[in-house]
């Protein structure tokens, strides 16, 4: 019985959205891919770089089920038995809220070679877009990235503890949890006047920025559409938040 | 008296080191640059993409003086009065420990247009290199990026508070502060058995990974060379830390 040599799986970060925020390495690997399993939100122009490949959309936009993840894992393993170059293309960076570890564990378990290609994560592209650094001398010397979303089988996350301890916080996948964010951080003593900036569809045409305070975050979330959004929070965001306040009121903070 | 139109300054992330971890956008802007002010550690192949440009090395490798930063700010402003396309090329991402805000403020103050091009930050490239996600279901749901280095004019940073509150922490520019990291985190109750991974020269040939525990971090730092290093800390690092332990001892944690 002969065994075909196994292919290699590349877990590739597609970056925050704009096709030209892909890395050169990712572009090269996509060009040689035979099959690409991609997140729903990957830009069509990025997928188009995989000219030779079959394109397979996998994963729900937010909060996939475990069963869906197990199915993706299986498809990656099966594909590596059939193709030499398999790409799993994920929005942002694979190693930050990308659930890459579950796919890596499955590939390791099946003895399949893999390589991770890092990408520009959305928080950094959002900071670039608003022209405001996440760290700033004398204001912010550390940054935390959290998500208030947890799987159904998990304990409630202690995401708020990390936010409270950090100078600047970026909340991924949090726009739908604005009420919980305000209540949980408020209960831990974060002032309602803390500057907040929400950025929807980071790096894409039609991206929107809304500045507000923590106390106004639910209202601000209702002003956004259904695109993915990051919430940036902390003193380093003050000027950018004021500049993006919808009415640019002098009374920012007391609407 | 005629005024020449002012040029535009691009603050560009060069990524973690490997030239092909640059973004497509950064490569395109470098190709059109007339002058590039670059950090000392930017790869020669990345600089070579700026074929038309004058190349100017600026900045000390670690912890520039304020005066040096003010001088860089002035050179950027002066260059934008002379050239149409000015690039400030920074290692990693400009908005995370890149001191970009001081340059942005100087450009804003002089009325000069600027644009920030995000890059792959070193922590994410390190996670890709070791094949270990910074977030992991049921183990780590948030990540904090800190540096224990602070300017001479600043208060001691509360970086340790952010590390203690996070599931996974990545310490930038910390290899020279290993003794302080161990002592400060230990004093805050972080167990000496906490898994740690140091990665030197992330994404470059000859990159080295050393796994250890928090209690062994000073010893581990002495095993590294003089290249830039990130220190990754937390339960999500356990397997990668054990795999990179120099002697791969069964008795990891009790050398």
Protein model, in words:
The structure is a homodimer of 255-residue chains. The first copy, chain A, has 255 residues and is an alpha/beta fold. The first copy, chain A, folds into two domains: 8-117, Cobalt-precorrin-4 Transmethylase, domain 1 (3-Layer(aba) Sandwich), CATH 3.40.1010; 122-243, Methyltransferase, Cobalt-precorrin-4 Transmethylase, Domain 2. Helix content of chain A is 30%, strand content 20%. Chain A contains nine helices and ten strands. In chain A, strands 3-2-4-1-5 form a five-stranded parallel sheet, with helices on both faces. In chain A, strands 6-7-10-8-9 form a five-stranded mixed sheet, with helices on both faces. In chain A, β2 (35-38), α2 and β3 form a beta-alpha-beta unit. In chain A, α3 (66-80) crosses α4 (100-109). The longest helix of chain A has 15 residues, at 66-80. Chain A is elongated, with a radius of gyration of 20 Å. The model of chain A has no long low-confidence stretch (mean pLDDT 91). The interface between A and B is large, with 65 and 64 residues.
């Amino acid at each position: 019985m002969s065994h075909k040599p196994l292919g290699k799986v590349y877990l590739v970060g597609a970056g925050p959205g704009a096709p030209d925020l892909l890395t050169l390495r990712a572009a090269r690997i996509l060009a040689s891919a035979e099959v690409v399993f991609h997140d729903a939100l990957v830009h069509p122009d990025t997928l188009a770089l995989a000219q030779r490949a079959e394109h397979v959309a996998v994963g729900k936009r937010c909060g996939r089920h475990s069963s869906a993840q197990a199915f993706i894992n299986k498809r990656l393993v099966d594909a590596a038995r059939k193709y030499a170059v398999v790409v799993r293309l994920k929005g942002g960076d694979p190693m930050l809220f990308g659930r890459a570890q579950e796919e890596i564990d499955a590939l390791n378990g099946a003895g399949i070679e893999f390589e991770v290609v890092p990408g520009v994560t959305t928080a950094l592209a959002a900071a670039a877009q608003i022209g405001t650094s996440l760290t700033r001398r004398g204001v912010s010397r550390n940054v935390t990235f959290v998500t208030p979303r947890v799987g159904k089988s998990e304990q409630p996350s202690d995401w708020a503890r990390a936010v409270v301890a950090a100078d600047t916080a970026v909340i991924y996948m949090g726009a739908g949890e604005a009420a919980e964010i305000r209540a949980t951080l408020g209960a831990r003593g974060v002032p309602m006047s803390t500057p907040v900036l929400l950025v929807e569809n980071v790096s894409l045409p039609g991206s929107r920025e809304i500045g507000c305070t923590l106390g106004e975050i639910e209202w601000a979330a209702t002003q956004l559409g259904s695109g993915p959004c990051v919430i940036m929070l902390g003193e380093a965001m003050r000027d950018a938040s004021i500049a993006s306040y919808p009415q640019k009121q002098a009374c920012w903070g007391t609407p």
